[in-house]
Give the backbone structure.
Amino acid sequence: QVQLVESGGGLVQAGGSLRLSCVASGLTWGSYAMGWFRQKPGKEREFVAAIRWPAVSTLYHDSVKGRFTISRDFAKNPVYLQMNSLKPEDTAVYYCATKALGYGSSWGTSSASREYDYWGQGTQVTVSS
């Protein structure tokens, strides 16, 4: 069974940095995407960033380009979301998710939350002004 566990959230001042981690277990797919999404109070869940494995490629929402970096060093290590130059509007619950690629789901649709099969429990990020 696939399980995702996020960590690294917290309270930070505007302009500061945080690094989120997502540890995945039970993955057996040969090719998959790992995504980060966030949900602000009263809003729908929105895409933040995604990474494809093992043919590494990354995808970002325009609002975080140049500030956030998604990465993964080795197949069994966590997926990280390095968040720099944080703004109060980045405040949200951040979720890690994963989906298989090549089973009716492509890398090109990796910004769509409905495409993802498994989700973590979320970690709160609060950016104070």
About this structure: The first strand starts at residue 3 and ends at 7. Residues 40 and 102 are 31 Å apart (CA to CA). The chain has a mean pLDDT of 94.
